[in-house]
Amino acid sequence: MNPLENFESYHIRKILQELKTIGIDIMGENIPRIIEETSFDRRSQNHPDECPYYKTGKPCVSDVLDFNCFLCACPEFDSKKDEGGCRINHPLGKWHYPYLHSASGRVWDCSDCSIPHFPVYVEQYLIQNLEKLKKMQDEV
Ligand code: SF4
């Protein structure tokens, strides 16, 4: 696994484990609780060391009501490439140059994209990936 895939894998497993610890199983009826527990505000209180932004009180991207951290590793991000990339080529993402750690000298920069932080996007993702996430939660 490259460092991008490592982060992706770490983040989702950590979130699923946190939910499991407080008795929230991945299932359709729990989606509102999952979204609540993975909000920026809730994770800032309960897991302050998990993100440098938690201690600042402000999320990494502004202008999102009820900012959510479940998909910090955006499912549209192409982590298989060492330069990353966006599978939907979202206009809020951009290439960043120069980047010495990829062969191409560039890396995909999502720092201005708020898409995966909207609760409605997370809800949609959960509905579409419930079985896969449930299986992952059983293994953590
Ligand atoms: S640009 Fe936006 S949608 Fe695309 S991978 Fe980055 S965060 Fe996800």
Summarize the structure.
With 140 residues, the chain is mainly alpha-helical.
Give an overview of the whole structure.
- The structure is a single chain.
- By secondary structure, this protein is mainly alpha-helical.
- It has one domain (3-75, 114-139).
- Helix content is 39%, strand content 4%.
- It contains four helices and two strands; from the N terminus they run H-H-H-E-E-H.
- It has helices at residues 3-21, 31-37, 40-46, 119-139; strands at 94-96, 107-109.
- A two-stranded antiparallel sheet has the order 1-2.
- The chain starts with a helix and ends with a helix.
- The structure holds iron/sulfur cluster.
- Iron/sulfur cluster is lined by residues 74, 76-77, 86, 88, 90, 92-93, 110, 113, 115-116.
Q: Any chance you could write out the topology, listing elements then pairs?
A:
Layout: H1 3-21, H2 31-37, H3 40-46, E1 94-96, E2 107-109, H4 119-139
Antiparallel strand pairs: 1-2
Iron/sulfur cluster binds at residues 74, 76-77, 86, 88, 90, 92-93, 110, 113, 115-116.
